[in-house]
Design goal:
6 strands; alpha+beta; 3-stranded antiparallel β-sheet; 173 residues; Nucleotide Exchange Factor Grpe, Chain A, domain 2; 2 helices; 3-stranded mixed β-sheet
Length: 173
């Protein structure tokens, strides 16, 4: 029964095998030199942009850190400046001519210049309309409604940012 061969044993080339010396067709052909160059160039551009953004972000973080340290230093120095300010403003007229008093006044002036060089300004308060972003009400007395009557403790700001609000007495009924 040589003529009745089972069809499953017939050797026919499959679709995946090359026929008659043909090269197999690849799904992903090799990129050309130009395509590789373009890919490398785009990757280089992306890496360069990422690096520039990284440098900018690090510089901003450094600047912000320095600003915060500066503000923290000022906040810690303000109570000392407040005490010195009160001492200078309450000097008795009989003592004003003494050398040590003049020395304290000079120290106060230098301290004020130092704060000014650090862009620290006093928060305007007395006579101003009460502003909760710049003032902290610690009391209320009869007077013009919503106006700051008296400053219990000066407030300070660095640039436009309040680092310590002014403690004030506000007018009201």
């Amino acid at each position: 029964m040589a003529g009745n061969q089972d069809e499953s044993t017939v050797d026919e080339p499959s679709a995946a095998e090359p026929r008659g010396g043909e090269e197999p067709v690849a799904d992903n052909p090799q990129p050309t030199a130009e395509e590789l160059a373009e890919t490398y160039y785009k990757n280089w551009q992306r890496a360069t942009a990422d690096f520039i953004n990284f440098k900018r972000r690090v510089e901003q973080e450094r600047s912000e850190t320095a600003r915060l340290y500066n503000a923290a230093l000022v906040i810690n120095l303000l109570p000392v400046f407040d005490d010195l300010d009160r001492a200078v403003s309450t000097v008795d007229a009989n003592l004003a001519g003494l050398n040590w008093v003049q020395g304290v006044v000079a120290i106060h002036r230098k301290f004020a210049q130092l704060l000014e060089s650090m862009q620290v300004k006093e928060v305007p308060a007395e006579g101003e309309t009460f502003d909760p972003a710049r003032h902290e009400a610690v009391g209320k007395q009869p007077g013009e409604e919503g106006k700051v009557l008296y400053v219990a403790q000066k407030g300070y700001m660095v640039g436009d940012r309040v680092i310590r609000p002014a403690m004030v007495i506000v007018g009201g009924s």
